Amino acid sequence: TPPFLSLHDLHVHFPTDDGVVKAVDGLTLELPRRRTLGIVGESGSGKSVTSLAVLGLHDPRSTRITGEIRLDGQELTKAPESTLEKLRGAKMAMVFQDSLTALSPYYTVGRQIAEPFRKHTGASRHDARLRAIEMLEKVGIPHPARRVDDYPHQFSGGMRQRAMIAMALVCDPELLIADEPTTALDVTVQAQILDLLKDLQQQTGSAIVLITHDLGVVANTVDDLLVMYAGRAVEYGPVRDVLTAPRHPYTWGLLSSMPRLTSDVTRPLTPIPGAPPSLLAPPPGCPFHPRCAYTSHVDGDRCRTERPELPKGRGAACHLGTARARALFAGAGAST
Ligand code: SF4
Ligand code: MG
Prior knowledge:
The protein has 14 helices and eleven strands. The longest helix has 18 residues, at 187-204. Among the domains are: 99-172, no CATH class; 246-334, no CATH class. The strands form two sheets. It has a seven-stranded mixed β-sheet, sandwiched between helices. By secondary structure, the protein is an alpha/beta fold. Strand 4 (64-71) and strand 5 (74-75) form a beta hairpin. Magnesium ion is lined by residues 43, 47-48. Iron/sulfur cluster binds at residues 248-249, 286, 288-289, 292, 294-295, 298, 303, 308, 318-320. Its main location: membrane. GO terms for molecular function: ATP binding. InterPro entries: AAA+_ATPase, ABC_Ni/Peptide_Import, ABC_transporter-like_ATP-bd, ABC_transporter-like_CS, Oligopep_ABC_C, P-loop_NTPase. It is found in: Cell membrane. Keywords: ATP-binding, Cell membrane, Membrane, Nucleotide-binding, Transport.
């Protein structure tokens, strides 16, 4: 059976007066049902642009999308807006970082949860309201029957984030994309929200894409991890394996900036100097080469001239190759 969600050679380009911004530049990935995929990378790596493309939320006048996005067999990049509109909310839904922009200040929380339910199921106002109360209860809002008529400003930040999750999940979507869903929250509430997403996934069997710049968030939450850099996937695999035996110098850099993850294996990896490249004119060869401390371990000029591809399955888009990357990573640990 084909994977539930698959992206094949996805390009999301924004033509501008200065040239074409290649925000996503050839991304291929697969996600089965009941699994959570984490996508990590710095801002501008293409994480959010990818999720907006899946949901069909880019303005077609300013965006050029090529390649394939398939959800449950259905191709989405060429689907008409009316089809996408039906899918959004019902089959796929999104949780954003900032609940204040996602929730309208002018309507009660309950109404904002009930509306998409009414729209997609044709339920009565009364039933939709009951459903909203049920959803508030599910996401852990105390006294949901009393809070359902509150406005967003009457909720705390953590409660608003839960309300937004309730809104996203009200139609039992099969795909949930959560873009930095906990970034604005304190650590305790973060953990609660992530647990909540896992619980809801257990109940509904949905597939989840969790987008974050924080490796600490993914460690205990996702099954598989995709590392993105400059619009490209640079490493992919089961999360444990990527975090304990990473194979791409960029992933090493990300990990070295995460002391609480690496404290058990203390590796003096080189932190990442410099900044991500311009997406207007990405460097030739490996897009990471201007920042990479390991180019001398690759034969000849390949890092500067030849673009490394991400292999299918566990792997890294790097000319070092698995064996050399393993040795370098282990060597960095041993030299302490
Ligand atoms: Fe570094 Fe070369 Fe690997 Fe790119 S291909 S990450 S420049 S070693
Ligand atoms: Mg983002």
